[in-house]
Amino acid sequence: MPDSVQAGDLQLIAHRVPDGGLAAVRQRQRRSVCGVQREQVDALRQAFDGRGRVLATVQNGVTLQTFTYDSLGRTVQSGAQRLHLAYATDRIGNKWASDTGPYAGIYYVGSGSGATWTTPIRLNASNQHATVSGLAASGARVYVTWESQTKLEHYSDTAPRILYVRVNTSHGASTAWKTAIRLSSTTGRASFPTIAAGGTDVFIAWTNGDTGEIKLSISHDSGTTWKTITVGATTLNFADGYSGDPFVAVSETTVAITWLKDSSGGVAVRVSTDSGVSWDTTTSVGSGASGPGSVAVRDTRIAVAWPTADDLVVRQQLSGVWVAPLIVTHLATGASSYPYAPAVVLQDPDRIGVAWAEQRTTANDVDLQWAESADGGSLWFQTLTLASANASASRRANDWPSVLWPVASTRDVVWNGWTVNTDNYRQYFRSGSGSPVEPALRSVSQLSKAGLTASSDAGGSMISAPERHAPTRGRVAP
Description:
Elements: E1 3-7, E2 10-16, E3 46-48, E4 54-56, E5 72-77, E6 80-89, E7 91-92, E8 95-96, E9 105-111, E10 121-122, E11 129-138, E12 141-149, E13 163-168, E14 181-182, E15 190-198, E16 201-208, E17 213-219, E18 227-233, E19 237-238, E20 241-242, E21 247-251, E22 254-260, E23 267-272, E24 283-286, E25 294-298, E26 301-307, E27 311-318, E28 321-322, E29 326-330, E30 338-347, E31 351-359, E32 366-373, E33 380-381, E34 384-387, E35 397-407, E36 410-418, E37 425-433, E38 439-440, H1 447-450, E39 453-457, E40 460-464
């Protein structure tokens, strides 16, 4: 049976994807950015791919990647929605992947409501390792991108990592997958692709691990032909090369890409208003980021979210102007708790929402949080815990969400649920409908002025008013 919780008028239904299909997640060992040392996962069985990430063992089946910002997509077929999800696994045919085979793979599953999922379909070659993927959907087409690697157990920092994309022409149908297309050099090192699609346009953002260039591979004909351009650069350099963790989003003709540009956690953004034909200059929208951020576009509205050591920050571009950034959540300054892995989304007319993982002070206990605003971010509804570390011993950590907000009343979230030093690593789906609880002030800079306090909600923090009064507006200085 699904888990169900009632929060105000927002009804949430959660389903665990079956073991035989979508089951578990690979947790990424976080790197130190802006001087903040980020959590490292200690799995019961670890197969390091050598790139600051861990493949975690799971019971009765598969291990999936946890880097799931863009893993969830949606199409509409004959008036009915189709959900699409891509994942990686090192459990192939009841055997663990090894350097010489079987090979870690990228798999696709589909669903109608999220309650049941189709039989997994392998997308990369059976003699190729791949552990990083992303998915986007538009019209009837589904696009999955991944980077290959030469070894799994004895990973080489300098070995090639090649970028691929594969296109499905009919809502994920098993017979509609076209041949995979290689998008990067066979001798280079592509890093962490993310993908977005709108109309017949497709965009894949990635880092050239050899040079630090932020790349964007673009197709204007539904993935048939491609070109790659350079949109920026990062100086973040690790043992396996440069990585700026870029993320891309598109709506109509507006495209936005964000990335981490340096060790100070600088957050860069570039925007195109003509489907990627031309681009504005790079804009620095924030600093102090402790890890990857997220970007969303709806019509001409753009939102970027990123974590710092204590805060989750969102900043928007409205009518071509970047407005002041907002702190959506603030954790105790200097404590061992911290936010990470935000996924920001936009809805009409002025709605904005963000899901994020919130590490508690207890190591590897992580809550999945959600907050939304109906007025562009001036006022925020109370934070809702979508998945609590206390809910189940098999799901102490809940992180790396991927979010869809197809209509104002419906929100779909996929996230990774796992418990360190166990064989419990799963991926979960949850759908929320209706309206959340009443608004509360979200700008931390105004707490003392408004008489608001930070209170605990299943280990996560939210800003709540001591009395039921009209919320006060407030913003964080740029």
